[in-house]
Amino acid sequence: MHTTNHESILADALELAQSYRNSKNARALKPTASTAELRAGFDIELPVQGRPAKQVIKLLDKAAKPGLQGNSNANFYGWVMGASSEVGIAADILTSAWGQNAGIYQTAPSAAIAEEAASRWLLELLDLPRESTIGFTTGATMASFISLAAARYEVLRRQGWSLHEDGLIGAPSIKVFVSAEAHASVLAVLQYLGFGSRNLIRIPTDAQGRIHIATLATEMSLLDANTPAIVIAQAGHINSGAFDDADKIADLAQQHNAWFHIDGAFGLWARSSSNYKALTTGIDRADSWAVDGHKWLQVPYDSGYAIVRNGTAHRHAMSISASYLNRNEDDGRNPSEYGPELSRRARGFTTWAVLQSLGSEGVGNMIDRHCACAKQLAKKITSIKGVNVLNDVDLNQVAITFDDGYNLPSYEKSKNADATNAVIDHIQQQNQCFVSGADWQGYRIMRVSVISDQTGPENIEQLVNAIRQAWSAVLSQRAEHMALAKCG
Ligand SMILES: *Cc1c(COP(=O)(O)O)cnc(C)c1O
Fold first, then answer.
1. Is the CB of 147 within 6 Å of ligand 1?
2. What pLDDT score was predicted for residue 198?
3. Is the CB of 210 under 6 A from ligand 1?
4. Which candidate in 63, 280, 329, 461 could, as Cys together with 41 as Cys, close a disulfide (CB 3.0–4.6 Å)?
5. What is the phi/psi pair of residue 309, to 5°?
């Protein structure tokens, strides 16, 4: 057996972590190694006798670094990803060192009470009903899973059906109304919960990706009084940042006794800013909300919150009962009553620390800064010929297309997908900023998400320059191509 010196292994790891974070703006924005190279680094022989711990950590660092994604960099705008704040990382290190199992209060009292306190702050910041209960999850996907499991339990209970005893087989059929542009994770979760895709009522959307309310009203008017129903809306569309009209949807949900769930993975945080809260009117009328900690709040991965107004439905949908899980009267909460896991990481510590570090104004100021950056970007680039912003930039997302007006036959089909892809490739190769693409409403878009805690106006200037430069390089390539096509 190797004798291990914990102190120095942890010190080594901290030094490596610090050096990675220090090189934040100099290091690669994207992985530099190929898949094969990464395999060569990781897929080494499993030793019969373990290696010394110090060597293992060194090997891990060496194998991982070339394949690390640069989402903690201030110039990273790909997908919609958080940047892991330093205080969050520090709290995460302590969480690992303490090694708590946050299943129940008795196995991890501090973890349970940290969750209680963080829950209260989250409800205040997001200004959601204070009686709501919160499950600390791996992300918004699991948060929607828990919320919709509570929904499923409750809408059946209202019809006198016990999900626990009778299960889904033979249960009254539940109608689920969901946007045609719902996030893929919501559709996946509905499948996990036993709602087949054919049974969903998909509601068409407008040019910003918002649910078409008149159609939803018509579809819901076909419900009879005894049909259990769930309606799902979005706060912060992945491409446009748009919000469904929660107030009108809440009216409809109320009218039809339906459970109203909101996927607000990143957009829900607009509620923490007095400047952007108006976008979210009516959102507090829902029954449940899914929101991420690891995106806009910058809690290190993984972190999300399932927020459910009806705590009884929440606990009934998730509780595990066993004699050893009992609580004493003055115990704090049992974290496992609010999610599907029993043994799990003490996720509450990190959220607790990040919220204490930002403060309520700090969260709102970060939202304000990122939204102002997105507007700055949109304004600057729309003055460039051939560059179009497809969305109303009300939040932090910018959906951009590129159109050189040539309409070469191969470009027509997907409305200049080739030009847009070429710009994205060029920017990724230049490696000054990172952007990624998506398909939206028949277009190929370059999607910019301003969501990294360090990003500010000067980073946006760099991005504007990168876009300008890439677009002009792509244009000259394409002009050449066009000339050749004419000659040929
Ligand atoms: C990211 C995202 C999700 C999924 O959240 P995870 O944290 O990845 O599980 C769901 N909905 C929206 C709108 C998102 O942006």
1. no
2. 85
3. no
4. 63
5. -65, -45
| Ligand 1 neighbour 261 (Cβ under 6 A) | no
Q: Of all atoms in ligand 1, which is nearest to the CA of residue 141? A: 9
Quick check: 408 pLDDT over 70? no
60-72 mean pLDDT? 94
- Polymer length in residues for the chain: 488
- What proportion of the chain, given as a percentage, has pLDDT over 90? 85
447: left (phi over 0), alpha (psi -120 to 50) or beta: beta
Structure tokens at 4: 């291990």
pTM above 0.90, yes or no: yes
Classified as helix, coil or strand, 311 is: helix
Determine the pLDDT at residue 197: 85
β-strand partners of 289: 262, 307
Q: Are 452 and 73 in contact (CB under 8 A)?
A: yes
Distance between CA atoms of 429 and 419, rounded to whole angstroms? 15
User: Would you say residue 364 has pLDDT above 80?
Assistant: yes
Q: What is the mean pLDDT of the chain?
A: 93
Residue 151: phi and psi, rounded to 5, are -60, -45
What is the pLDDT, as a whole number, of residue 411?
47
| Nearest atom, ligand 1, residue 183 CA | 11
Query: CA 207, CA 192: separation in Å to the nearest integer?
Result: 30
Q: Tell which residue, 26, 74, 76, 77, has the closest CA to residue 456.
A: 74
115 Cα–ligand 1 center, Å: 21
